[in-house]
Amino acid sequence: xxxxxxxxxxxxxxxxxxxxxxxxxxxxxxxxxxxxxxxxxxxxxxxxxxxxxxxxxxxxxxxxxxxxxxxxxxxxxxxxxxxxxxxxxxxxxxxxxxxxxxxxxxxxxxxxxxxxxxxxxxxxxxxxxxxxxxxxxxxxxxxxxxxxxxxxxxxxxxxxxxxxxxxxxxxxxxxxxxxxxxxxxxxxxxxxxxxxxxxxxxxxxxxxxxxxxxxxxxxxxxxxxxxxxxxxxxxxxxxxxxxxxxxxxxxxxxxxxxxxxxxxxxxxxxxxxxxxxxxxxxxxxxxxxxxxxxxxxxxxxxxxxxxxxxxxxxxxxxxxxxxxxxxxxxxxxxxxxxxxxxxxxxxxxx
Length: 350
Hints:
With 350 residues, the protein is α/β, with parallel strands linked by helices. Helix content is 23%, strand content 26%. The protein contains eleven helices and 17 strands. Strands 3, 4, 5, 8, 9, 16 and 17 form a seven-stranded mixed beta sheet that branches. Helix 4 packs across helix 5 (188-197) and helix 4 (160-170) packs across helix 10. The longest helix has 14 residues, at 298-311. The two termini are 19 Å apart.
């Protein structure tokens, strides 16, 4: 099945229109006509080979929302017309310990990512959501219950939402907990919204005074400009948990100083270059931890989507036609978006 898409043929090539082939739905497959696809910074890193191992042609996109257009004969959970989503994974081994616990993101034999993973389908690797349709095993399809008017803004929940939800849930953000969110971008703005809805006292960290009002409007109880040493010092040793969403290399030590004993600094941003090594004494003197987290399992992602629908939570987005994807990448590198671009997939037909 031929479908229109946008992708790149090499790291130094612009994204351009191309035709790609999707498999016909197998017995347990769901075919999805894509309505919207969010634009993640990971897309830019991968398509430009800033992360190793890019396979070309590369069609990015893993924040997908659409309608089911066909299902395989053994599919029972979905039917034509259903509103569904696809996130960062489209398969996993299904038999390792992590998969058995519903943690497919940590599949011990390696999960299959929505794009740039080896696949038996043409052209030998997966192709993502910058396309008109996609075919996915029903186990990796999520149900979307947001209203039709919210669907574009719900698309980033499939990556930015679950990437922040999973660690907030794991480290039990909620009433009585003081939670910090470092960075007010695509990930960070979702972290603020989710942590506040979960009942935590939320403090947003930003390097820019101009984002103070934005962070408060997103739901932060307080805002710290991290370049202001006095503001940082006022919150020393007071945080239970800090979620660092920044995708650029930076010093972690100032945030370790803000943790209580047994507090955790969790990294979800993936910088192009490693962070400077933190000082050991900042860790051992308070039994503090630096941890990491990536997306979430399928059951956990469904839990997040249902929570967001119940609480009216969506991303703050700017809709673009696919023809402006290169401009969007350039603006994303300048942090010139509040806070996530979303592609209107109807423009692929133009």
